[in-house]
Amino acid sequence: MLAMNGYDVTGIDLAEAAISSAKAKTIESQVKVNFVIGNMLHMDRLFMAGEFDVVIDSGLFHAMMDEERAVFARQVWRVLKTGGKYFMLCFSDKELSEDGPIKLSKT
Q1: What percent of the chain has pLDDT over 90?
Q2: pLDDT of residue 49
Q3: H or E segment and range at residue 10
Q4: Spatial contact of 16 and 37, defined as CB atoms under 8 Å apart
Q5: From CA 38, how far away is CA 100, in angstroms rounded?
Q6: DSSP codes joined into one string, 35-104
Q7: What ranges do the domains of the chain cover?
Q8: For the chain, does the N or the C end have fewer beta carbons within 10 angstroms?
Q9: pLDDT of 102 over the 70 cut
Q10: Closest to 36 in 3D by CA, of 6, 70, 58, 9
Q11: What is the pTM of this model?
């Protein structure tokens, strides 16, 4: 959606299959997206400091182990420009189900 609206977009995933699927969708939509197969915990090996205005996390943070979350937060902070924004899509602690991934609160 962002690429279709003229934004420069980079997608990263550890799974080659996920990247292949996403590439196919961009071809269908006739948009340009830069895709990287890589680990979000090692973004310092993949991207320059201050490279991004926005980082969008779609279901990753809540699936990490506690010790990985601190590493991830430092990596996101590093790749964001000063004043950049981080958006997270995750499961809420207000979710009634006991099953599934860790649920997070606003605090």
Answers
A1: 71
A2: 98
A3: strand 10-13
A4: yes
A5: 25
A6: EEE--GGGGGGTS-TT-EEEEEEES-GGGS-HHHHHHHHHHHHHHEEEEEEEEEE--BTT---SSSS--B
A7: 1-38, 40-107
A8: C
A9: no
A10: 9
A11: 0.81
